Amino acid sequence: MPVLTEPPSMGDVLKYEVNPNYTREVITLLQGLPYPVGSVLGKITASGKYTLSPATGADGSQVASAVLLYAVDATLADATGIVVARGPTIVSRAELAYGATVDDGTKITAKIAQLATVGIIARDGV
Asked: Matching Pfam families, A to Z (predicted)?
Protein backbone atom coordinates (compact mmCIF):
# COMPACT_ATOMS: atom_id res chain seq x y z
CA MET A 1 0.00 0.00 0.00
CA PRO A 2 1.48 3.40 -0.99
CA VAL A 3 2.32 5.99 1.63
CA LEU A 4 0.59 9.31 1.08
CA THR A 5 2.49 12.46 1.97
CA GLU A 6 0.64 15.70 2.52
CA PRO A 7 2.48 18.94 1.72
CA PRO A 8 2.85 21.57 4.46
CA SER A 9 -0.20 23.72 5.08
CA MET A 10 -1.02 27.02 6.73
CA GLY A 11 -1.78 25.19 9.98
CA ASP A 12 1.76 23.84 10.05
CA VAL A 13 3.20 27.36 9.93
CA LEU A 14 0.71 29.60 11.73
CA LYS A 15 0.20 28.64 15.36
CA TYR A 16 -1.46 31.75 16.83
CA GLU A 17 -2.74 35.10 15.63
CA VAL A 18 -4.74 37.65 17.55
CA ASN A 19 -7.19 38.47 14.73
CA PRO A 20 -6.87 37.51 11.04
CA ASN A 21 -8.57 40.75 10.01
CA TYR A 22 -5.69 42.63 11.64
CA THR A 23 -2.65 40.39 11.09
CA ARG A 24 -3.12 39.32 7.46
CA GLU A 25 -2.63 41.16 4.17
CA VAL A 26 -3.16 40.35 0.50
CA ILE A 27 0.10 41.09 -1.33
CA THR A 28 1.72 40.77 -4.77
CA LEU A 29 4.57 38.29 -5.12
CA LEU A 30 7.34 39.00 -7.61
CA GLN A 31 7.38 36.60 -10.55
CA GLY A 32 10.15 34.09 -11.03
CA LEU A 33 9.63 31.18 -8.65
CA PRO A 34 7.12 29.09 -6.74
CA TYR A 35 6.80 30.33 -3.16
CA PRO A 36 6.25 27.57 -0.58
CA VAL A 37 4.04 27.84 2.50
CA GLY A 38 6.00 29.59 5.24
CA SER A 39 8.16 31.69 2.91
CA VAL A 40 9.88 34.51 4.78
CA LEU A 41 9.29 37.56 2.59
CA GLY A 42 10.62 41.08 2.25
CA LYS A 43 8.99 44.01 0.46
CA ILE A 44 10.75 45.64 -2.49
CA THR A 45 10.53 49.35 -1.75
CA ALA A 46 10.30 50.61 -5.35
CA SER A 47 7.54 48.26 -6.56
CA GLY A 48 5.76 47.27 -3.35
CA LYS A 49 6.01 43.61 -4.39
CA TYR A 50 7.24 40.87 -2.07
CA THR A 51 9.93 38.27 -2.65
CA LEU A 52 11.97 35.82 -0.58
CA SER A 53 13.97 37.95 1.83
CA PRO A 54 17.68 37.63 0.95
CA ALA A 55 20.49 37.79 3.51
CA THR A 56 21.73 41.11 2.10
CA GLY A 57 20.66 43.66 -0.43
CA ALA A 58 19.60 47.25 -0.94
CA ASP A 59 16.09 47.13 -2.46
CA GLY A 60 14.17 46.75 0.82
CA SER A 61 13.49 43.04 0.48
CA GLN A 62 16.51 42.22 2.66
CA VAL A 63 14.34 43.09 5.68
CA ALA A 64 11.99 40.20 6.49
CA SER A 65 8.50 41.57 7.08
CA ALA A 66 5.93 38.83 6.32
CA VAL A 67 5.30 35.08 6.21
CA LEU A 68 3.37 33.48 3.34
CA LEU A 69 0.39 31.41 4.52
CA TYR A 70 -0.44 29.49 1.31
CA ALA A 71 1.84 28.22 -1.46
CA VAL A 72 1.82 30.41 -4.57
CA ASP A 73 3.28 29.66 -7.99
CA ALA A 74 4.61 32.92 -9.41
CA THR A 75 6.93 31.24 -11.90
CA LEU A 76 5.49 32.91 -15.00
CA ALA A 77 3.88 36.09 -13.67
CA ASP A 78 3.41 38.15 -10.55
CA ALA A 79 0.84 36.51 -8.29
CA THR A 80 -1.34 37.33 -5.33
CA GLY A 81 -0.65 35.80 -1.93
CA ILE A 82 -1.92 36.00 1.63
CA VAL A 83 0.62 36.75 4.35
CA VAL A 84 0.74 37.35 8.03
CA ALA A 85 2.25 40.84 8.11
CA ARG A 86 2.01 41.85 11.76
CA GLY A 87 1.44 40.46 15.19
CA PRO A 88 0.84 39.45 17.74
CA THR A 89 1.42 36.22 15.84
CA ILE A 90 3.31 32.98 16.54
CA VAL A 91 4.73 30.86 13.71
CA SER A 92 6.57 27.55 13.80
CA ARG A 93 10.29 28.18 13.34
CA ALA A 94 10.76 24.72 11.80
CA GLU A 95 8.23 25.41 9.03
CA LEU A 96 9.70 28.70 7.78
CA ALA A 97 11.21 28.72 4.26
CA TYR A 98 14.08 31.03 3.36
CA GLY A 99 15.76 32.28 0.22
CA ALA A 100 18.94 30.55 -0.99
CA THR A 101 21.21 33.20 0.53
CA VAL A 102 19.83 32.63 4.03
CA ASP A 103 21.93 29.54 4.45
CA ASP A 104 23.26 29.40 8.01
CA GLY A 105 22.13 29.79 11.60
CA THR A 106 23.31 33.38 11.94
CA LYS A 107 21.34 34.52 8.89
CA ILE A 108 18.24 32.61 9.99
CA THR A 109 18.47 34.21 13.44
CA ALA A 110 18.69 37.63 11.79
CA LYS A 111 15.53 36.94 9.73
CA ILE A 112 13.66 35.78 12.83
CA ALA A 113 14.71 38.96 14.65
CA GLN A 114 13.45 41.05 11.72
CA LEU A 115 10.07 39.29 11.84
CA ALA A 116 9.90 39.92 15.58
CA THR A 117 10.07 43.69 14.97
CA VAL A 118 6.63 43.45 13.30
CA GLY A 119 5.25 41.16 16.01
CA ILE A 120 5.72 37.82 14.23
CA ILE A 121 7.37 35.50 16.75
CA ALA A 122 8.98 32.24 15.60
CA ARG A 123 8.97 29.49 18.20
CA ASP A 124 10.41 25.99 18.34
CA GLY A 125 8.16 23.06 19.18
CA VAL A 126 4.80 24.68 18.50
From this structure: HDPD
| pTM for this model (two decimals) | 0.94
Residue range 32-89, pLDDT digits in tens: 999 999 999 999 999 999 999 999 999 999 999 999 999 999 999 999 999 999 999 9
* Predicted confidence (pLDDT) per residue in 8-39, tens digit: 889 899 999 999 999 999 999 999 999 999 99
C-alpha 18/C-alpha 41 separation (Å) is 21
Q: Where are the domains of the chain?
A: 10-123
Instruction: State how far the Cα of 124 lies from the Cα of 94, in Å rounded to an integer.
Output: 7
The DSSP code sequence of 63-77 is: SEEEEESS-EE-SSS
Whole-angstrom distance, CA of residue 14 vs CA of residue 95: 9
Alpha-carbon distance values, 104 to 107, 108, 111, 112 (Å):
6, 6, 11, 12
Residue type, 44: I
30 with 82: CB under 8 angstroms? Answer: no
